[in-house]
Amino acid sequence: MQDVRAALKKMAATHATRTLQKAHNCLTRALRHAEGQDLVRRNVSALVDTPRGREGRPSQSLTVTQASALLEAAEDSRLHAYIVLCLLTGVRSEEARALTWDHVDMAAEQSRSGDLSALTATRRPSDRAGR
After folding, report:
1. Domain locations in the chain?
2. What is the three-class DSSP state of 54?
3. Residue 102: is it exposed, middle or buried by C-beta count within 10 angstroms (0-12/13-18/19+)?
4. What is the end-to-end Cα distance of the chain in Å, rounded?
5. Given a cut of 90, is residue 106 above it in pLDDT?
6. pTM attached to this predicted model
7. Burial letters 34-67, b for 16+ CB under 10 A, else e
């Protein structure tokens, strides 16, 4: 238990609280799995509280006012539909750029809200290399 606390405390000096939570959760899950396989007697990670880390980076999301201004400024631009897609779906720009008409199912039944079933995984296996 002391080792887990010490490791998390050391990480807290250089990492954000959310990163600490993810690391602690990962360790707890791994030890829970090991406990189920009788590889460890007790999941000591589950007994430790996650410490607070450093302040995380500020959000890079647009505010509603900024998004509205962007839409208004791009209204006559050829990028307007692209901007609307990104803002309304939350798709990342590199994912939106990879979309083609093949990703849109025009024959799909529309939902009650009128949404079009359009997005599918757009990453190629080569895009994941090195991750």
Report:
1. 2-47, 60-106
2. strand
3. exposed
4. 31
5. no
6. 0.50
7. eeeeeeeeebbbeebebbebeeeeeeeeeeeeee
